[in-house]
Amino acid sequence: MKSICLGVWNRERKPRKLMNRVAGNPDAFDSLRKAWRVYAENAKEARRLSKISIPRDVFEGLEAVRKSNLTNMLDRPMVAKLAAEMGFFETTEWLMDHRKEYAEGIFRGFEVDEEA
């Protein structure tokens, strides 16, 4: 029996052979898929558990605002305003320049970067 596919213009053509080396060996494909899944889960877990590194003066400003209980820490513009009012101008500048890092740090946590 001959396998034939109909193309877009209703022409008969033979199906293409798979050139993938893994296609002929289902065990190899499964092992690759499992290895990738383990790698992806480990990378995601490491990213989830790692804290955001920030300079000490920025950390002190964020801690001062957090301990004041004057705003929700998710309200970044208000946190920046309160930090400026408390005299932590480095914190305000960092918050304006690092929006994504601040959002991730709220959920993953912050750590002081001693090198900065």
Task: State the gist of this model.
By secondary structure, the chain is mainly alpha-helical.
Structure write-up:
The protein has 116 residues and is mainly α. It has a domain of 61 residues. Helix content is 57%, strand content 9%. The protein has five helices and four strands; from the N terminus they run ββαβααααβ. The strands form two sheets. It has a two-stranded antiparallel sheet with strand order 1-2. Strands 3-4 form a two-stranded parallel ribbon. It starts with a strand and ends with a strand. The mean pLDDT is 80.
- Give average pLDDT, whole number: 80
Q: Low-confidence parts, pLDDT < 50 over ≥5 residues?
A: none
CA radius of gyration is 27 Å
Q: Based on CA inertia axes, which overall geometry fits?
A: elongated
What oligomerization state is this entry in? single chain
Total of DSSP H or I helical runs spanning 4+ residues: 5
> How many strand segments?
4
Strand percentage, roughly? 5-15%
Largest sheet: 2 strands, antiparallel
How much helical structure, as a percent, in the residues? 55-70%
Keywords summarizing the entry:
single chain, 116 residues, mainly alpha, two-stranded parallel ribbon, 5 helices, 57% helix
List the helices and strands and how they pair.
Layout: E1 5-6, E2 12-13, H1 26-49, E3 52-54, H2 56-68, H3 76-85, H4 89-97, H5 99-108, E4 110-112
Parallel strand pairs: 3-4
Antiparallel strand pairs: 1-2
